[in-house]
Amino acid sequence: GADLVLSGITKRFSDFTAVDNLDLVIPSGSFFALLGPSGCGKTTTLRMIAGLEQPTAGSISLGGKDITGASSYQRPVNTVFQNYALFPHMSVLDNVAFGLKRRKVRDAEAQAKAALDLVELSHLAARRPAQLSGGQQQRVALARAVVNQPAVLLLDEPLGALDMKLRRQMQVELKKIQTEVGLTFVHVTHDQEEALTMADTVAVMNHGRVEQMGPPQELYDLPRTAFVANFLGKSNLMPATVTAVAGDTLQLEVAGNALTLQKDRATDHTGRILVGIRPEKLRMEPDLASAAQDSIRGVVLDASFTGASTEYLVDAEGVGTVGVFTQNHGGALFADGDRVRLAWDPAHAFGLSG
Ligand code: ADP
Ligand code: MG
Predict the structure, then answer these.
(1) pTM exceeding 0.95
(2) Residue of minimum CA distance from atom 21 in ligand 1
(3) Is 44 in the pocket of ligand 1 (CB under 6 A)?
(4) For the domain bounded by 4-228, which CATH number is listed?
(5) Which ligand is nearest to the CA of 39?
(6) Where are the domains of the chain?
(7) 234-353 in CATH: which number?
(8) What is the secondary structure of 74-139 as a DSSP string?
């Protein structure tokens, strides 16, 4: 397939490094998300893939062919922007057919109609963009990009202008369309939920570098840096000391408690580390005399009942404030001031360099 490969890509704007020695392999036909906070270098990376920006160093290849020096129109790459960039004076159909007609493709109109079918907008083909809703305009922009049958479709925060409800709906549709057309999608977003729901592979960017890359569930379950642990959902990170290594288990001390961690779930196996545990992976129990393994004591500081779940803040002994999410199944809830024990399955914890 036509894999997209970025090797050692760096982009400097005078003495500022926006993208720093990036290595990415994006398999043909995959839905790939570049996820990161504003300013981390996502758009700059997309612009280099599109040929709108020249890298300071490194190379880009597509299907084994070096395209680093190729101009944007020589690349089989199309971009969908957040602001859609539709032609206001043209009908929806003409907007979609425009690129094909310019290249004198013979059945341009028929292909444009098929693309509008794909995004379920055939019935609005005669309208002008201004007569459509934001979500519909976004789908026209998508049809216009897909109709050119690029090898790679770049999407830069394409749902950023939509309200939350429509955004969630479009995420499902966009994913469905990608599966149908089988094109490689490189989707840029700062919305972690969007990246996790849509992508096969997510690369988490920070300060121009990829911190971690992998399938959504793997990134969530086993973050390898504090940045990834905090950017993808919430994490409790507790300082710990490795006291011994026994087979594939690390023995730890966390604020005077003896705990364990699977060695392969830790990036660092000696000295002072951080133990991470997601709020929903913590069990909260009354603080009884018989202490559970892998647990720490605490006092409930705050309980927020949200219906299906309750979010607690617990002052954990020697650790500080820890967040706990519990599903409400009709059992007793804890209240401010309750003395509790927080316990977890060591298979759910992860270890990071301290
Ligand atoms: P993102 O899309 O992740 O928000 P960008 O790739 O747009 O981030 O920008 C990354 C960094 O590079 C930002 O600090 C931005 O200000 C800077 N930058 C982007 N384009 C230019 C440019 N043409 N000249 C100078 N700095 C730029
Ligand atoms: Mg951007």
Answers:
(1) no
(2) 13
(3) yes
(4) 3.40.50.300
(5) 1
(6) 4-228, 234-353
(7) 2.40.50.140
(8) GSSEEEE-TT----TTS-HHHHHHHHHHHTT-TTHHHHHHHHHHHTT-GGGTTS-GGGS-HHHHHH
